Structures are given as structure tokens and as C-alpha cells.
Predict the structure of PLP-dependent aminotransferase family protein.
Amino acid sequence: MEPSGTNSPAWELLLPSAAAPARRRGRQFQEALREAVRSGRLAAGTRLPPSRELAMDLGVSRGLVTEAYEQLTAEGYLRSGRGSGTWVGDSARAAVPEVAREAGDPAPRSPDALVSFRPGTPDLSLFPRAAWGAAHKSVLNTLEHHALGYPDPRGLPQLRIALAELLARRRGVVADPGRIVVCSGVAQAMTLLGFVLREEGQRTVGTEDPGSPEHSALFAAAGLKAVPLPLDDEGLAVGPLTASGVRTVQTTPAHHFPTGIGYSAARRTELLDWARSVDGLIIEDDYDGDFRYDRAPVGALQGLDPEHVAYTGSVSKSLAPGLRLGWLLAPARLTEAVAVRKRTLDLGHPVLDQALFAELITGGDYDRQLRRCQRAYRERRDTLVSALAEHFPGTEVSGIAAGLHIIARLPERYGPEAGFLRRAERAGVAVRPLTDYGSARPQDGAVRLVLGYAHLTPAQIVRGVRLLAGSD
């Protein structure tokens, strides 16, 4: 939270033109303050200076500042309370996600885009601030002093116990608290596994193609070469996997990124048979497995063979990626080596964050958060599918009804892809084509887009599609 006061350079940007008439100066100040909140220069939770103090420092009338505070409070940009001052509110945060990441998507949002469909960012305004604050108070009142020392590198015992129950109940995972390692997100889980596998003598690891480009970089950082492996309509193709000679492969079986397919039951069985035949390992990235909109989510692959599947997950899609909080459930033979490597990397995950998350799980707030996100994201997916059908007739949406993104195949008349992307950029809409995520190139002239929707309101989604279609 930024302190109040006018010594921040952000306040200088609010200064209206001295040459403008008084009424115009008031509008300029309001517009500048509104934009500072929208853009994130004034972050949610920032306390604004008293109107008299800010007016003196900017050389404007106190009435101009007071009127702006009142107007933006009425609009929801600011909030105020008797005797507590004026603060930047939370309402505008969802409209300005700074970074879009989907299963490791490293591409930043275009700063000039009016609407960004880049995949990966959840709706950060849904973060359960009240529940998090209550849990913080409860934890500080109850956490024993010795728990604040150097932690078990596997994680706080109460969180690992809570996670074991949660993952078994919601994802069908075979979860022993002793085999859970709390990590800084799935990225660290992948890196930890990479280091351990390298120490075992492995030099290669299979990755999905198409897939998240970040996985290859994470394994490379651990000294492993990524071997891209193709998918078909049922999931990772077992023939090329077997021929590659790798003994470890990374997968997203519940909801593949980016194609959106769910691995078929037959393919899941074939992958497990492969792992057993080579005494290999399947790394399961369950990045958004909780969000399925047409039926109950399919259980995790790990539940079928916990000794040949390493399960990873995080709160990046359900709470916020900035928490850097995830977990790794490794086979028994790898657990100790992973914990040792975790200790050498960072001496363990922050204790207070772990205790807070454990409190959310055991108190039922995390389940309520998942239900809240489920309702919001399902509505937004439905809105996007309907808007595409209206403004791009003939569009095919592929993949299962799940997660935070869809694959949209636009008819060939909207191509070629390069031309469509240039038109989208001119229209102020940020999109990513499916070709950004893999080596294969389609043989037809259709445009295939990976469209993220969770961070956008239904109105923003409709506007973005209209802009793409040139009708807004």
C-alpha cells in the first residue's frame, strides 16, 4: 500500500492546465485521477492526501479536489469513510491486468490494447480480501512462536494436511501430507523436479507440442533438454513419445493448454502403461482443473498411479498468481530429494502465507472462492461463445467447456492469419494465435485464436469481439 502524501511523482500527473477555464480544469483533474486509478499508477488501497493538502501542493482550489473526490467516489473509483479519509477502491482493477500468463504464458499484455484476450489471467478483483484479512488476523492470534522459525522445506504441516484433504476430495488425488511439497507455484515445482531428474542422470524431458513455451525454459534451467511431442484429438500421442526415448514427460491432461482438449480415458491409460513400461514419470500440470462448466471435473491422472505421476497445482487461477503459492505431490522415491533441493533453493516457503491458505481451506472459504470463480468464468465463457457466433458466423469453438480460455477457429474468409492479426492490432484488440504455441502450422487458411476471457467482464468481452469484427 502506498502512503498518503504528495511527494509521489504520480500526483504531478494530475495537475490540470493552468490556462484552462475553472470548469475545464475540474474536468481535467477528474479525468487524470480516474485514469491514474484505471492504469494502476494509483493502486487499489492507496490512501489519497486530504483535499486541503493536495490542493495546496498542486496550486488549485480545495473545491476542485473535493468535487473530484466526491465524483469518483460515486463512480466507484474511490471509497471513503467518516474520519478515515479517501482511498483508491477495487472496482477498476479487473480492467487493467498487467501480465497475462496461462500455464506459463510469458507474453505481456499490449499497453495500447482497448481489450486484451491474451490468455491466462484470472479476475483479480475476485480475490477474497475479506476472508484473507480475517484469516490473517486469526493466524496471527493462534500461530505458535516456534512456527515462525526456519520451516520444514516440504511446507507447514497444517497446510500439507489441509491440501491432502482438499486434493483428494476435489481432484481425486492420492494425497499423503508427507509427500506434498509447498512451492512458489507450478514453475518452481517443475524446476525442482528437473533438478532431481538431472541428478538421477536424465538429460531429456518430453513436453507437449503445442504447449506452454515456459515449460521448456524451466527444464532448461535445470539442465534438461525439452523434446517437443505432438498431440492428437485424444491427447499426447504415445507412438512419438515411445520413439523419443524420454523417460519423463510433462502433460496437462485435465484441460490441455492451449488446445483445450481433455485427454481421453483410453489415452490416459496408454500413458500410464508407457510410464510403467519404462519406469518413467508423467508430470501432471493441473493448472485449472477445478473449472469445468458442463459436468464434474475429471479426476487427476495421479490418482490412477501415484508412483508414476508427479502432480502439480497452484492458486494462480483460483486466487492470484502474485501469491506464488503452489504444490508438488511427488512419487515416494522422489519426495526426499525434492525436499532437499527445495531447502537449498530458498529454505522453504513463507510460513504466514501457508498458514493463511490453510485457514482458508479448513474454514471453507477456499471452496466458496472456487464456486464464486466457477460462476463468473462460466458466464464469461458463454458470453464469448455467443458473441463470436453473432459477429463471426461459422466460428468453431473447440475443446471442453473448462478453464480460462477457448480455441476459436474462424472461417477462412477472415484470413489469412497474419492479416487478421494486423487488423486486430489496429482495432485495439490483443489476441494470440494458436500457432504461437507450437511447431505445427495448419494447412488451411483458417484463423485459430487462443482467447482468454476470465479477466474480462461480459461487457468487455462483447466489445472486444465487436472491435475484432469492425462493428464497434
Notes: The two ends are 37 Å apart (CA to CA). Residues 1-10, 93-109 have pLDDT under 50 and may be disordered. The chain has three domains: 9-94, 97-127+368-469, 129-363.
